[in-house]
Design goal:
This protein is α/β, with parallel strands linked by helices and 337 residues long. It contains 15 helices and eight strands. Bound molecules: nicotinamide-adenine-dinucleotide.
């Protein structure tokens, strides 16, 4: 059945998800704060900068009036980059009705509060039902209909299932989960490991190194997330290891790309300028380190990434320091009899 859906944010991800929704027969209103972006989308029915080549159906309309993308909407998708989640939630708040669902699809942890994004949405929009949706899903591939799986997470089962019903189709499979915190931590912390994977690529390391970073990376993310209250199964699922694999391997990952440039010798500022997009892992790296300290969890890869980003440490030295750490067993929970 046709539903009215609002999409807040017209970057790569907001645009790709709008197309999924329109293909499912829904009427979609997309809002952007950037007037020129809205005009470009109206004129070309294509996001020429962020998702070139992906034509958008007529059932999608574009606006700079945020009220039009909120009032009367069955579902509101919040797709702005994580650094704008709080400011955009504030702008949305006066128009969101009690009980309306806002699905946050950004990935990040707020640097100064260390809060995950659904919590920020709930804090800024009184009465909202905040949910999340993430998983291994690059906009470039979703935009051209390549088979993709994600997870919809919400405190209430009915909310997660509503998101699932609205988004699901034969190329976009949606699972549900009650573990919103685990999903959010997996989704945001993997960006930090992706920077490390990129650095390894830039240094000319091999597949062995990449596999090590992915495996030890998820071990690190899991230690922290479980201590914070997440479920371990979430970390071995699509929004944990799944999203980590895609971000560390994909040519579409801006975090991996920025890391690669740093591995080749560029500074953080030079690398982010070259990537020309928000590199969320840089913000999440600081937040992850602070969370590790707060919850007293060892995060060796994340610590080294921070040193490369903020203390001018050479990526090559960071790799060596990870390799020569104290000897230990692979898992502290495995014991000899
Ligand atoms: N791109 C992907 O493949 C993908 C996939 C899954 C999740 N995500 C997540 O979705 C979020 C958005 O990613 P993206 O790739 O669409 O980013 P993007 O860089 O393409 O988004 C930029 C867009 O943000 C909006 N914007 C710019 N300044 C703003 C402001 N001050 N306030 C509010 N909105 C502003 C504009 O519409 C702009 O086009 C990120 O958290 C990302 O991790 C992205």
């Amino acid at each position: 059945m046709m539903k009215n859906i609002g999409v807040i944010g017209a970057g790569s991800w907001g645009t790709a998800l709008s197309k999924v929704l329109a293909n499912n027969g829904h009427k979609v209103v997309v809002w952007s704060i950037v007037k020129e972006e809205v005009e470009m989308l109206q004129k070309n029915r294509e996001h020429l900068d962020k998702l070139p080549g992906v034509k958008l159906p007529e059932s999608i309309s574009f606006t700079t009036d945020i009220k039009e993308a909120i009032e009367g909407m069955e579902l509101i998708i919040l797709a702005v980059p994580s650094v704008f989640t709080r400011s955009t939630s504030k702008t949305m708040a006066p128009f969101v009705k009690e009980g309306q669902i806002v699905v946050c699809v950004a990935k990040g942890i707020e640097e100064n509060t260390l809060k995950p994004l659904a919590e920020i949405v709930a804090e800024e929009i009184p009465g909202v039902k905040a949910a999340v949706m993430c998983g291994p899903s690059h906009a470039e591939e979703v935009g051209i209909g390549l088979p993709t799986t994600v997870v919809a997470g919400a405190k209430e089962r009915a909310v997660a299932e509503k998101i699932q019903d609205i988004f699901m189709n034969e190329v976009f499979r949606v699972y549900t989960s009650p573990d919103v915190l685990g999903m959010e931590l997996g989704g945001s912390l993997k960006n930090v490991i992706a920077l490390a994977a990129g650095m390894a690529d830039g240094l000319g390391c091999g597949d062995n190194t990449k596999a090590a970073l992915i495996t030890r990376g998820i071990a690190e993310i899991s230690r922290l997330a479980i201590k914070m209250g997440a479920n371990s199964e979430t970390l071995s699922g699509l929004t944990g290891i799944g999203d980590l694999i895609v971000t560390c391997e994909s040519k579409h990952s801006r975090n991996r790309k920025a890391g690669m440039l740093m591995g080749q010798g560029l500074t953080m500022d030079e690398a982010t300028k070259e990537v020309k997009m928000v590199v969320e892992g840089i913000y999440s790296a600081k937040a992850a380190l602070a969370l590790g300290r707060k919850y007293d969890v060892e995060l060796p890869i994340i610590e080294e990434v921070n040193k490369v980003l903020f203390e001018n440490k050479k990526a090559k030295d960071a790799v060596t320091d990870l390799m020569v750490r104290d000897k230990r067993s692979e898992s502290s929970s495995l014991e000899w009899n």
